[in-house]
Specification:
Oligomer: single chain
Distance between the termini: 53 Å
Number of helices: 4
Number of domains: 1
Structural class: mainly beta
Number of strands: 18
Strand content: 35-45%
């Protein structure tokens, strides 16, 4: 196992680089992450909801925010289903979908994603990908896949990380009452955890669905995530 020594609040900290994705290591600083894979593209201002005297504006990733009240972020990265950042939390996006936006090249406008290669894991394309930081440290990487792709990803993880530390199961039921279980693989290294949920997409009578996003991969630092403040509950009654 290779350990990289960094510093957090003046103390030496060993960061496990074996559970990393595209160079992003759990526990790394937000400032280091922002210069990890910088990509720039010129976009039509009107396409991403930016008011500008210029027809085109430069959009740079990683794009990070502590709130979703940023129209360009919503349009480019489609953050539907990603929980609102809590106090002290920042969420970053490194890549948009292949068909998320229009990028302009001279007089030619084509469908184009920002840094789309950053969404591939074990040769499979993640339909959603985001990074969560708390107090300036990366504690979670989250991405969504189809169940059929997740099966292949599981085999790649086993080759790279060995036998899972733990295998659990999630139970599902369809509208006709049929029940089935799908595995959840976990690799644990201290407070750092990698989990792969196969999801519900391979249940009985289910065809392969291109829109199936029930599988997901989570890289998580449980020590850092345990410091998060509780979500504020809305009391409207």
């Amino acid at each position: 196992m290779f350990l990289l020594v960094t510093h957090l609040d003046g103390y030496a900290q060993a960061v496990d680089t074996s559970l990393s994705f595209k160079g992003a290591v759990l526990g790394m600083s937000l400032s280091d992450f922002k210069v990890l894979d910088v990509t720039s593209v010129w976009l039509k201002a009107k396409d991403i909801g930016v008011k500008s005297k210029d027809k085109e504006v430069e959009f740079v990733t990683p794009a990070c925010t502590d709130t979703y009240r940023f129209d360009a972020l919503l349009r480019v990265f489609r953050v539907i289903g990603v929980a609102e950042p809590r106090d002290g939390e920042v969420i970053c996006f490194t890549a948009s979908g292949n068909d998320s936006i229009y990028a302009s090249y001279g007089d030619l406008s084509v469908r184009h994603g920002i840094n789309s290669d950053a969404r591939y894991l074990a040769g499979k394309y993640a339909r959603n990908l985001y990074y969560r930081f708390y107090r300036g440290k990366l504690y979670e990487i989250n991405m969504q896949f189809s169940s059929i792709d997740a099966v292949d990803i599981a085999e790649s993880f086993k080759q790279k990380y060995g036998t899972p530390t733990d295998i659990g199961y999630e139970e599902f039921q369809n509208g006709f009452g049929a029940k089935w279980k799908a595995p959840v693989y976990r690799w644990q290294n201290g407070s750092r955890q990698l989990s792969l949920h196969i999801g519900s997409g391979l249940g009985p009578g289910r065809d392969v669905d291109d829109n199936d996003l029930s599988a997901y991969v989570v890289y998580l630092d449980t020590e850092l995530s345990g410091l998060l403040p509780l979500e504020k509950k809305v009391v409207d009654f």
